[in-house]
């Protein structure tokens, strides 16, 4: 028992990360696991350090170094979240007694919080783009993405049973995800637990989408 406790006390940050990644495989998508690994690389200076000896000061230096790199708030939040994931796991497994990240507050950049920068095409810009798309399958795909706002993986996973042209609805029940470890694509549940239904009647482009999809279906083009 003493030996086990002693081993736990000597577990390095990198070793605990490996355990977390293994645990994540039971409830997290492969793409999300990859994001977690990439985020934790920003703390690689702590990898060989026993997790029990990592202090709030150590973590504060990590966060400050990220801010000096002018990373976006969203990126730093993602790194912070994944660091917290590791320390919460360590706390639950009694590798540490307290979570040192709880005392680390990241400085908010008010100028970035007050500005919302979206790179969104105007309708005229999309029309210029789609005019040059000659392949029916891609024409339909890009139009669905633009006019409905669905994610790429959601659009690529659509089947005819998910589309009701009479009701004017598209049901998002799955998404196509890349599994990098085995180099293949699989269908997985959407990011949100509840199925999402897109009501095409609320879109000014409903008639256009309906006619376009109906035409492709009648010609058996996808």
Written overview of the protein:
This protein is mainly alpha-helical and 222 residues long. Helices cover 48% and strands 9% of the residues. The chain has 10 helices and 5 strands. It has helices at 2-9, 13-24, 30-40, 56-68, 73-92, 110-113, 123-130, 136-148, 152-156, 206-218; strands spanning 163-164, 169-172, 175-179, 184-188, 196-199. The strands form 2 sheets. Strands 1-2-5 form a 3-stranded antiparallel beta sheet, with no helix packed on it. Strands 3-4 form a two-stranded antiparallel ribbon. A hairpin with a 4-residue loop joins strand 3 (175-179) and strand 4 (184-188). Helix 2 packs across helix 5 (73-92). It is elongated. The relative contact order is 0.09.
Provide a brief overview of the structure.
The chain is built from ten helices and five strands; from the N terminus they run αααααααααβββββα.
């Amino acid at each position: 028992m003493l030996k086990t406790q002693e081993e736990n006390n000597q577990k390095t940050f990198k070793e605990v990360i490996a355990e977390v990644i293994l645990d994540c495989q039971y409830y997290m998508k492969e793409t999300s696991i990859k994001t977690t690994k990439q985020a934790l690389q920003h703390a690689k200076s702590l990898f060989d350090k026993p997790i029990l000896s990592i202090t709030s000061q150590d973590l504060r230096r990590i966060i400050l170094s990220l801010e000096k790199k002018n990373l976006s708030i969203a990126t730093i939040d993602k790194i912070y979240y994944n660091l917290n994931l590791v320390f919460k796991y360590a706390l639950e497994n009694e590798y540490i007694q307290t979570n040192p990240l709880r005392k680390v507050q990241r400085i908010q950049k008010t100028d970035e919080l007050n500005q919302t920068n979206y790179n969104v095409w105007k309708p005229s810009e999309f029309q210029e783009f789609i005019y040059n798309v000659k392949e029916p399958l891609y024409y339909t795909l890009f139009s669905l993405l633009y006019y409905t706002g669905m994610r790429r993986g959601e659009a690529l996973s659509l089947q005819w049973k998910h589309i009701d042209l009479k009701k004017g609805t598209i049901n998002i029940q799955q998404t196509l995800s890349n599994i990098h470890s085995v180099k293949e694509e699989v269908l997985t549940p959407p990011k949100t637990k509840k199925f999402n239904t897109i009501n095409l009647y609320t879109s000014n482009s409903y008639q256009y989408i309906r006619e376009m999809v109906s035409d492709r279906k009648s010609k058996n083009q996808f």
